[in-house]
Each structure stands twice: as C-alpha cells, then as structure tokens.
Amino acid sequence: MAGQQKAFGWAATDPSGVLSPFHFSRRENGAEDVTIKVLYCGVCHSDLHNAKNEWGFTNYPLVPGHEMVGLVTKTGENVQKFKVGDRVGVGVIVGSCRTCSICEQDLENYCPKLVFTYNALDKDGTKTYGGYSDIIVVDQHFVLRFPDNIPSDSGAPLLCAGITVYSPMKYYGMTDQPGKHLGVAGLGGLGHVAVKFGKAFGLKVTVISRSSDKEDEAINKLGADAFIVSSDPAQLKAALGTIDFIIDTIAAVHSLAPLLGLLKMNGKLITVGLPNKPLELPIFPLVLGRKLVGGSDIGGIKETQEMLDFCGKHGITSDIELIRMDEINTAMERLAKSDVRYRFVIDVRNSLVNT
Fold it and tell me: Quick check: helix, strand or coil at residue 111?
C-alpha cells in the first residue's frame, strides 16, 4: 500500500449533519502532487446540503469544505508550478480525466469523470475529504496561485462563490457590455460577490431579495444601484421588463415567474443556486419574450485562475464572518436560516485542535 499522511478534521457521520472531530489519512505526496497546510476554509451552502444528505448521495463520514487557502508544505518531483511556502488555493474539484474533449477546452468542471474535493473517489481509489481539515494533497493541475494582495480569509470563498458567479457572467455575455442591467437574486454568499463583479464589469446592478433587510447594505456597502423586494407586487410591477440579465443565486425552492417578468425581451435568467427540489418553469414568459433560462456550475481551472487574478486586480473579496472550527455546527444552523453576512470562513490554522 502506498504511504499515507495522518490528517485531522471535522466530519459529519449521519444525516443529522452534526460535525465532530475526525482522524483520517491522506495519500502520501505523489510525483504530481502538492501537500498543503490548510489555513482557512469557506463554508458553502453545498456543505450543508451534503452534510445532511439533502441531495441524496452523501457517503459518510463526510469532511466538507472546498474553498481552501493554504501553504504548500511538500511538492512531488514533477511539480513545476509551486514550491514549498507558496500560498495557494483549492476549490471544488481536484481531478478529471484530463483527456476528453471537455477537458481539452479547459472545462474540467464538466468532465464526466471529474473528482470533487470531497464526497468522491480520487484517482488512486481513496475517498476525498475536504478542507475542514489540517492538510490536503492535490494534483498540481488543480491547485491555484493565490494573488498576493488578496487576504487568505476573505479570499477563500472566491474558490467556489467567486467562480460560480464569474463563469456565467463571462459565458452569457455580461462582462463586455458596460451599462447593461444585471439583477442579482439573493444576497448571500454568491449574490454579494456577483454584485461586486457586476460593478467591476461596468453593469448597472439591482439586488432582488424577498425582504428589505439587506437594502442598505446592498446599496451603501456593496455598491448596488437599486433594490427590489420580490415579495412586494408594486415593486415587481414597476420593474417589469427592465433587466437584461439575472443571476439567480437562491439555494431554496422559489418561484421563477417573478424573475422572468423582470427581464427585457431577449433577457437571460441564469441559475446557479442549487435547491434540493425541482423548480417550476413557466413557459409563456419565455416564448412571449424570447427569453432564456440557463445554468452554470463553477468553472475550469484556467478560468478560476483568471477569476482570482481579476479579483486581485480589482480588490474583490468576500464579506465574511470568521469562525473557529468548534463553532461550525452553530454556523451551519445559522446558514440554514440565511443568517450570515455573507460567508462563514473557518480559521483552520488557529482553531483546529487535534484531540
């Protein structure tokens, strides 16, 4: 059996989703591998879904976490991109076939054989465990350079939340049309980064939320131009047919009809949230307005690096609440209630105590 490295983290062991200390092993560094000491790890809504098996394919025990920033502690003999001491990032995927037509387009995230950072099987047949842990071993191709001017803690969520909204903005034509109108549905971990990207791309940005609780923050802190309360029929009516693009980041079951009504003719509604039940799609608004509903799932490694470099150039980070590892269960309870501004990040280095 190949050598192994001892690792320690926190894991969920059943659908209660409660996490507790967990000892396990990582593979020993291979020729193409980088061993990374995890400093910070963001808490994504998909971590909550997976911990509770809400999508139905969790394999326990589960160590969540796919928004990691850390320091390289060991490199394999074929590693050229990184050296010991480098600050790096690891996102949602740690493997793909690298040979199919999709991978050849630098879209490893859509590869049929992609390997998720946790709750999957790696290339050597071992189970993948995520960033709620002290170390991780990753093939160098899936490790990202982290911009010098981006803080490790507030930069960590960019590895998932950032690329999840950057990729569709680029693919669906939002990055080169300054002055166009972007709606951001849901002002959470994804939505608040989408607002920042939208402004950096020169778009007019309107936040769409079910209540007015975040209106002041959206406009005066994040720089949004306007705010629509989606539960207010008068506000929806006043904004009918005024928006070119909407990025729907809402992770709960919700109606798409009001969002489609806000779009102009030829408008695009792009969904990136992942509710645990299907959404109803009304067809008449699509047909009568030649509108489009699309989706998007993170980005490939090349595009993720591009996104990080863009954030470095424009000083874009996530707004975070920094927590200790032993506060993760409380954080998960709050996340389920959307009670966070706007992303929890675990201070792994200073709070993961090996017991």
Answer: coil
